[in-house]
Structure prediction request, 500 residues.
Amino acid sequence: MYPENEAPGKFPYTRGIYPRMYSSRLWTMRQYAGFGSAEESNARYRYLLSQGTTGLSVAFDLPTQIGLDPDHPLAAGEVGRVGVSVASLADMRKLFEGIRLDQVSTSMTINSTAAILLSWYVLVAREQGADTRKLNGTIQNDILKEYIARGTYIYPPRPAMRIITDLFAWAAQEIPEWNTISISGYHIREAGSTAEQEVAFTFANAIAYIEAAIAAGLPVDSFAPRLSFFFNSHSDFLTEIAKFRAARRLYAKLMRNRFGAKDERSRMLRFHTQTAGSSLTAQQPDVNLVRTAIEALAAVLGGTQSLHTNSRDEALGLPTEESARLALRTQQIIAHETGITATPDPAGGSHYIEELTDRIETAALDYIRKIDEMGGALQAIEAGFIQAEIQNAAYAHQRSIESGDRVIVGVNRFQMQNEEKMPVFKINPEIEQAQVAGVRAVRAQRNHARWADALRALETAARGEENLLPRIMAAAEANATVGEISDTLRTVFGEYRDAL
Prediction:
């Protein structure tokens, strides 16, 4: 049926990383969720699981993401707003109460404080009696894209990279089934990049992580099988299908030819996809259901391993329960009613899809070569090259909308007057006070001597060269908070300030 070098499940995996793809196993259906308190988010997770979600995906609030406790002055007004507030081991227990962590796959979108949140997750699993070596899930842990496109960094790039490679080494021994990084093109695309730039800059970052891990003494095949990726599925339907195919092929070649990966799993591009938040409009929000369905279909035709579908109301606020259910139903209809899961790579063989696949691979590789000439992703970030390329692409895109060359339904054409307002999900303002009281109670009730010893040991380790993860785990177990552990590392590493 296929030429040998084009068969699904065969290098370079253009048509999919598994021979039968979805006919043997569907993608993991995740719904990214998190808001307010751990108790409220736990209730949403239970609801989503009852509705057929096959994996959890945790959104954390900004203070948690940048290592601030709920009572820090800079956290005021942000606690629980764009994700769940998790400041301590006690919060993590509440977040997963009644959910067996050895029976669910969990994705956590967290970067600067990823090692801390993962430590709490592992500790809760141990308390549940789980075999932590069988825990399954993903931690985003992709700091380079924070400097490029998102901004929730804490430390300068080089010590931040040390934490990541320490986590790689620790997890390989302690939680070998866990995906230790989700190298993200999603936020690069949300910031305004083209499809080609999304692939190129994501892989440039991946090269930097792989080189850092090898420099730290890790053989490539000891960690590469647990690398995963996170891509955007935007509204340009055919381009997105081709983008995923091109990315899979380019990655396989990079891992074999550049890094000499021998393990077949090291060459397989495994990725999660989220539909494009930036494509959603506040105008006529019900139309976002159509946008999301098209974007989700592109991700499935492109061979994703995991998928989140955005909700129709996300241009207005956090998703309501009804909107989240409709977003999940979108995936379920694609999986069970369309018939496209019966064969791998249904769009493959189309002259246009194949030409687009080649074109995107070539353009992405050209960018990677240019970044190599600059010294790699770190140097390209420090020089502002990647950021400038994204900004230029975003500007061109916006100009095309304003000129009318690009049509956005309901925004620059087909507008409606006197639209009916959609109900918007609201966060209870009392949650912030409750979270402040909760973190203060943790501080008051813990063993102070054990806590102080753990943080001193962490600081000493940070000033030396030992792996930081056991020290972070010990501090987490001693009920140190996210802010306290982060501050201990800030003392040694300092804080990053964007020069641009």
